[in-house]
Amino acid sequence: MVNELSEFLRICHVNCQSLMAHLDEFQAYFGPTGYHIICLSETWLKPAVSDDLISLRGYQIFRCDRRGRNGGGVAFYISNSLQARILLHSEGVCDGRPEFLVAEISVGSSSKILLAVVYRPPHCGYLREFLDAFADLSTGYKHLIIFGDFNADLCSTTFDLTQILTFIEATNLYLVPYAPTHHTRSSSTLLDLCIVDDADKLISYGQCDACFLSAHDLISIKYRVRIEHHLRRKIVVRDFRSFDIDDFLNDLRGYDWNVLYQADNIDSKVSFLSDALTECYDRHAPLRIIQPKHFPAPWLTPDIKSVMKTRDRARRVQALVRSAKEKYYLNAFQDSSEPTAIWKKLRHLGLLKSKNVDKKLIFPTDELNEFFASVAAGSDGQQTHHPVYLGEETYEDSKFYWSNIEKTAVAKALLRIKSDAIGVNGLSCKLFIWALPCVLPVLTHIFNFSLTYGVYPRTWKTAIICPIPKVKCPSEMQDYRPISILCAVSKALERIATEQISRYMEETGALDPFQSAYRKGLSTQFALIRVLDDVRQAADGRMVTVAVFFYFTRAFDYVNHYRYYILIDKLRDLGLSTSALRWLCSYLNDRKQAVRDPITRTTSSERPVFTGVPQGSVLGPLLFVIYLIGFGRVLKHCKYHFYADDLVIYLHTELKNLTEAILRINENITSITHWATSNKLSLNPSKTKAMIMGTPRFISGLNLDVLPRIYINDAAISYCDTVQYLGVHITSSLSWEKHVTKKAAKANAILHQLKLCKHLLPLHLKLRLITTLILPLFDYCCADITLISCTLRLHYRTQPSSTKVFEYLCSVHLPGKTG
User: Would the pTM count as exceeding 0.90?
Assistant: First the structure.
């Protein structure tokens, strides 16, 4: 994390000669140094090593690894207070050329910086290629900085040195005058260089020994560009260190709950409950603000650090570090029984992907909130609310009515909530569960009151939006993914409502039989089996199948219930009573959202949400499935299948009738576009795929260029050889080759990660990781893989790595292993 005393940009470079070999010491050293950018050469990293495994708290990493041969590689660690964009990088292959990364660094309102890190292997040519490329980029930047190990000794006269000095002179740059940076027993040479655009921008420069990494010195500069203080992320938590559950419940029983029961307004009831719980928890477990501290290597005791300072060249300290690290993690995992704590430690190790919540937002929260809300609103934009007439309440046996909710159902629904996320009421599900002996009757009363009178509490309609970056360095608002957090207790009521509606839909057979999402007993595997079995049967009959895989733009957000009441009309047609419709209208309408900054915890102003089913809700997915009911009546010629918003239509045909089949497909697509328009949904032609499937004998003879095109709204859809559908790679020839290759590569990458941490985990956790991370790759939709040869090929491709890593993980030798 950047030191708060830092005022100007601080950058350093070191040749680390294997980052993984010195990772603990690297993290311990650079964690508190206050450098804004750390440039590394000779990282010796491979693509199989994930960014999370080599993460440094408060920094994001950018890297260019050498592939195919050991050694080489360059990287940046850039502070989260800065924005970076990679402009240019080397190919990552050992071809006798320099390895480099060139990035654009944005520092607040200052001009952008062009920064490069270079590693030139010994006796390597083509240095001019990098120098010319950097010179071409430099014309658009005010600040220029190059760091790297050029393997050209400035203390002697060589062709390489002359080339570098000529470049510096021609581009009017400045070479920082360091002393020799590489030391052996017999000599010292100046190999590590820093080149800047202007000597006057150098506030200071320095170098120091970095023998814990390599024989190269660490070189650094302080550059005259001001840096905003990087705020550390704040988390508001409750202090349970002195919490006594009995005292808490006794205090809670002292409230006059009759006030709540006698209130005639649902919002007053919910407000009384929330206020009572908050006041009581504030007394027994007060709120406190913490700033997460990430101790890079807590196993490095003061004694070990003392040895590190006086280490000798034999590097005996590495054995101490490794032993202390193993002992630390083994004790930590043995003492942890909570799954959350275990996964947190695994994330710390880098075995699991980090949540990436420490990144500073580059846009104000109000602007992000406006953007998220406008995107969700779609083409309707700001909508005017037109009250809908639901009709008078009349009782009919065939209609759906809410059932009375029992206390046991409320308790069961609460206990099924696994998330500890906190909504606008400031109360997590865990806090309600602890208070359940006192508040269960109150919650049951509120839930029944809500369903009976058709009103949904206003507080529960407001969502907190957490913007999560989709990419490493967001530059536009669409680079953020909005994650919605609702009040935890509201999900219990939603679950009860969902179960009652689902039961009614199943009993009446109203749900689409070709919709597999959010239904008990159905899954992605079921959807794939249904589609692929149809295709295989057609292939057995010497036919091919024309398939179109549709992509709907933000389908869940475009569900219309506010202006045109399409969803409410569909629910009425399905037999929901007026009282049920009144509650659903209250549930869907008048919703709001606010964006929360992950660092400062400040929240934007609230903005209304007019369309869509609530993200992060329990009831929303079922309502979306209901919204799609009736689609089957649109098609005349094709079969179809839905999994949530993933739609595929397909038509079997003999090869001689293929042209006619494509015309029929286009006719059905026209009907689908009209259906989508009338339901306010939006098809995305650029992400929609078409494919002709069949046996290799028939597919190989097709000339796709002469076939009629498939169109969506005059946009041509290209024919593909491979489509990823529900996480499975399907090929036109019904081969599993690509799917097997992808799964094998992913399994090998995970196994490689586990191998790097093999000494740090107890046996039971190693087996659990294999079960959690590896087996799902083989198990997911395994029933769809019909050719045993492909299954065996998947086994053989992963067998060498898996055998070796199982031996390491379980500390056993597997019999029958061959060389």
Answer: no
